[in-house]
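Quick note —
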Amino acid sequence: MKTSNLRRGALMCGAAVTMALGAPTWALAQTAGTVDELVVTGSRVSEASVAIGTDQATATVAITREALLSAPAGVTGLKMLESLPGFNVQANDALGMYEFGNSVSVRAFNFQQIGFLLDNIPMGRSDQFGGSPIYRYVDNENLLRVTASAGSGDVGLPSYASLGPIVSYLTQVPDKEFGGVVSYSRGSDNLQRTFARLDLGEHNGFSGYVSGSWIHGDLWRGPGDIDRKHYEGKLRWEIGEGAITFQTVHNDYFDYDSPSITKAQYAGTAGDLFGRSGRDFAYLGYVPVLPVTSPGITYSNTAYNQYYKQAVNSRQDHLYGLTYETPIGGALNLTLGGYYESKEGYGVSPEAYATSLTNYNNERLIIPGLFAPKGLQYGLSTVDGTRQGVTAKLTWNLGVHALSAGVWLENDDYHRTQQRYNQVGGSPDGAPLLNEPVHLQRNYTSTRDTVEFFVKDTLSLLDERLHIDLGFKSLSVDYNIQGYRNPADFIASRRPSISKTWEDNFLPQVGAVFDVNSRDQIFASYSENMALPRGADDIFSAASPAAPGPEAETSTNWEIGYRANRPTFNASIVAYQTSFENRLQAFAAVVPGSSTTETFYQNVGAVKAHGAEFSGQWKPEFLGGKVYFNSNLSYNIAEFQDNFATFAIAGKRVPDFPEWLWTGGVTFEPVEGAVFNLSARHISSRFTNFVNSEETDGYTIYNAYLDLGDGFGAGPFEQIKARVNVDNILDEDYLGTVSTTTNTPASFRPGPRRTIQFTLSAEF
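Predicted structure written out below.
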């Protein structure tokens, strides 16, 4: 590291300490006489050099701990991304807790094309069924930083899901002093959350912490509740200049669903049988009395599927990680990691009597032990599996070269079943009769064996003013699915085994960072990526075994940008062009080598996006260091490049990708121990289908928080704080998450109404 960077880092650390004690940062600068070297931010704004990605060759931004702790207690790590430039995050509720209500898009990519890591442990795929979505694995209170690269993450980060974007979650190391924190939150919709963490302190190089959080609340839309129990732990043993770290996460989650609705249902023009409309459109909290549609079957009416107890989700996830870091000599550093994950869970969805009767008749003469349907069916899907892997990375500083190389190996085994069962009396409120299967739909196992390695060289030239990254990675994923993938497999008495390998041995990444001076940088990058096809299990379950598997989606990403890090402001602006090829789409076509027409997933073309992103923070001196501003602005045009089947979509906008995204906020620290923030988030209109025949309006929501007690202690507690968070202050009524379609009206999840949360915390 250059001497100037060391000096700048030391001054910034000093500034952070002073802010924590309540003294204005600008006063420190004047006293020390080093205002030219000091970057001024605020105690609730991310550290400047981290926030704008200083020294990174790609557009990399971050949320540091100070900003994370200002969010509502219990907010998911995924929803926090909405404060970063370019990330269109939609959530079904204010905390982002409901898993099937979350969506993310950035540049040309969606949630399943983004790579997520926790302390360098790859999260694999983000599917709610069988995947490892990041929001199950973190509590905000334990995070040190969330770093996101919207275009292309570093070539050394392991992921088979990413077509470029990478989001990395880094947790805290255990505190060297014994202590802890407890907090309790109450909020709208009967929300209650408790968090507790105990740091064990350091003893002969050993340190560690354990934490737990317990959250319970009602759905804001309709009957039902959410319940989550979450535990984390970390042990660290420092050995000389190296360290061994063990960490674990356990998550137990249960919730009821809420329905997606069309614009017609939202507007009340769909002729809903129960008179529902607007954003409060929900499942029923009672069993209605409906006309019988099949003689002798009391609960044969299809509308009985609107009872809320027929739509639930439950997940249990366990993750264990072990990391060993050590220097080897004076120039080499080795990092070894291993992890193991196990999961299980289930989901319930209803099936109408008429549908179940047809499926029962199709299978009853082939599969023994089936029972005729009695009414509404209990649809049970179960998931279980394990994921295990190892990572290794070696870095070597050799003159102007900083060399690194590494490997990642992973095995992912996943098992899924799906059956329909009778319920007592056929009633939607009857207990499930798991000894009376009506028909079978799935019982398969899928595996993914991944091998990835990378090599990278960072050259420091021109007296360390120019840094050039030259690297590449090789990725290979062997996939297999075997068993009963769909009802047709049961009917045909077949248990196919289908395999496919996706690999690319040369995926380059090139980047450069040039220091114009000690405050300004220019950066640029180019990268190529390949990813496991999104929803691979669904792809290979959609048709007969004769249908061919698709090629992997691939991408290219170009970026060029500028960063400024000044005494009273910092900013980053980047222009980009990104695309991905071999886009996947299901449609009817003749299966190659036969005359049979089937609907199966095929590679149908490309998506390209271009645009610009700005991120900045400003703390003007003329306001006495008590007020600071932050803002992100993104402009993005994402378009289809090719038609498919009979749909002329070339040149059409990709649905759910807004053209404009803006977030901004102002933070006011009037006195020591008090922080007030007001922020806004605007998303422009979005198309909702491929042919662009429908769109949903843009919206702006305002949020605020008041934090009191910073620096206040009493009795055994070093710090006692109170925080109030208000989300959607003006109670904006809008449609958020979109379930896109090809050429028909889409379905939506309404955005949550105004919510208020109170949190009291104490540290000891």
